[in-house]
Amino acid sequence: LPCSAMVTAADLVGWYSLSWKGGAFEVCLRPAGYFFCSKFQAPARWELVDNVIRIDWAKFGKYELTVDAATKSMTGNAVPKNEEDPGNWRKAEFVRPLSPVEALLIGDGAGSEWDFQWSDGHFPVQFKADGYNHFKCDEFPAHAHWSLSEDTLKINWAQYGNYELKISADSKTMEGGPIGGDWSSDWRKASFTRNLIDNKVMEA
């Protein structure tokens, strides 16, 4: 392919509709080679090699798809390729780039750290951009996760409860409180501190 038809990994970051014989669902190519799918979560990675996306989806298999530089659409197959298997093919269509809020949370690819505040003080928390969207807090440790819908963030903090906060990408802040609570008195806020460093470490 001529150089003008080549794409870079940064060009491909964003959301795609991945289809196969069983249907279609959204997946996200995150910065630094992190691959995320809300429906099928796993410690997954992706890389671009000569206009071919290679996906290592852990227990969900390995895939290779060739990228069309003009449309960012992709066609390929599960690895190993088996043309006799009607379920071997995969296609992906570009849906949308990361939103400003997503880009803020995900950072350079590994996630971001925030100063989390409530009426009794403040402490650092981390929004991991791994295959499970882990939420980490050393002061109140739990097997916790985060999810995002447009600019609304939800934190499932296990024994510490569930929270909802609205994020402002412009001010790099968020505010809200416990789901179902009275936010006028039982509030939560956070402000962006830093991007997490991508060290290729996966958490189960």
UniProtKB/TrEMBL annotation:
Protein name: Uncharacterized protein
Source organism of the structure: Strombidinopsis acuminata
Domain of life according to the entry: Eukaryota
Upper lineage: Eukaryota, Sar, Alveolata, Ciliophora, Intramacronucleata
